[in-house]
Structures are given as C-alpha cells and as structure tokens.
C-alpha cells in the first residue's frame, strides 16, 4: 500500500510539472519537521512560479503538510495535504496570497 501511495504522489508531481513550459522556480520556507521512531510529519510553505504551456504565468504559494512512515529503514510519504488560504469575503481559495 505504501508503494502505491508513493507512486501516486510521484504521478501528481509529474502531472503538475508537466503543465509548465520551461523552467520554474520552487521555494520551500518555514519548514518544520517532527519525528518519532517510525512516523513523522512536516509542514511548510511552498512557492511555485513559471510559465504554463498555454503561455499564462503561474505564481502560487501553498501550505503543504506531509505524513511519513519509515518502512524498511526508508522514510516514505504516507499522506500529503496541500491547501491555500481562503478569502473570507468570497469563500474562495486565495492563490495570490504570500507568506
């Protein structure tokens, strides 16, 4: 099951990166990691910017929380959650928000 989940996360990244035409910038900030013996989680702010294949620019900041399990001595992503702040006036995600 862990291998299937890891392949799913890899496929998600492949799909996301495939939307871009050329290089992108990628920054991680405010990374916090908490570990136990066989489980861990991390939280960070991640910023992506680049030109999409349709020519439109994309500049997005998201919050990412990952859960990890150590299996066979290797840390694997067991769960990933990505979110954006919500504009309280509109109730919609705020893709232009910056940390």
Tell me the distance between the termini: 35 Å
Could you list the spans in which at least 5 consecutive residues all have pLDDT below 50? none
What fraction of the residues are assigned to beta strands by DSSP? over 45%
Report the major sheet.
Answer: 4 strands, antiparallel
- Taken from the alpha-carbon principal axes, the silhouette is globular
What is the topology, as strand order, of the major beta sheet? Answer: 1-2-3-4
The secondary-structure element order is HEEEEEE
Structural class determined from secondary elements: alpha+beta
Helix content: 10-25%
State Rg.
16 Å
Mean pLDDT: 86
Say how many strands there are.
Answer: 6
Topology of this structure?
Blueprint: H1 2-17, E1 20-35, E2 39-52, E3 57-71, E4 74-83, E5 86-87, E6 92-93
Antiparallel strand pairs: 1-2, 2-3, 3-4, 5-6
Care to give the gist of this entry?
16% of the residues lie in helices and 60% in strands. By secondary structure, it is α+β, with helices and mostly antiparallel strands. Strand 5 and strand 6 (92-93) form a beta hairpin.
Can you offer a commentary on this structure?
By secondary structure, this protein is an alpha+beta fold. It is 16% helix and 60% strand. It has one helix and six strands; from the N terminus they run αββββββ. A four-stranded antiparallel sheet has the order 1-2-3-4, covered by helices on one side. It has a two-stranded antiparallel ribbon with strand order 5-6. The radius of gyration is 16 Å and the shape is globular. The N and C termini lie far apart (35 Å). The mean pLDDT is 86.
